[in-house]
Amino acid sequence: HWVLYFCFCFYTTQLFSGTVRDNIDPFYKYTDDEIWHALEQCNLAETVRDMPGELDATVSEYGENLSAGMRQMLVLGRALLRQCRILLLDEATSNVDYETDKAIQKTLREAFLGCTILTIAHRIDTILDSDKILVMKDGLVEEFASPQDLLQDEKSTFAEIVRHSKTAGRGE
User: Closest by alpha carbon to 131, among 114, 147, 115?
Assistant: First the structure.
């Protein structure tokens, strides 16, 4: 079924009470080795190994006993384990610190090769290395091109947004 090819990572993560294993592999389809491989790809393996019980470590309702970054990485690990073909990120890094954002971007670049990633974001750094950028204005397509092409056009809305973010000193 086509929906099996989609994975989602939202601003608020979709975790539930149980264990790390329950959250990364809710249907118990994968081996421990496959789970550890996915955790390594999303830079979470060492953290999980340090938790009491490792894969059987407790995750509280909504993952409240984990940091925002750990919750997002666990959701990415789930997507890696499923080998999704299309990943939708909806403000997935807006609730994490800069270092975690960088780690998530690294994971996306290195571990999701061959996967189409659709990113909805306000942080400029989150989308700068995308293949294409779609800028919407008042619900309509304003522009669509590679970041390089948009940045070379001084009249581009995207270029204006980037200039504004740099002068504001925020990078987002």
Answer: 147
Residue 172 has a pLDDT of 47
pTM score, whole prediction = 0.82
Question: pLDDT at position 169, please?
Answer: 62
Distance CA(97)–CA(36), nearest Å, equals 25
Residue 14 and residue 77: Cα distance in Å, rounded? 12
Structure tokens at 86: 């299309």
DSSP state of 4: G
Calculate mean pLDDT across residues 18-46: 95
Core vs surface per residue 115-146: b (16+ CB within 10 A) or e: bebebbbebbbbbeeeeebeeeeeeeeebebe
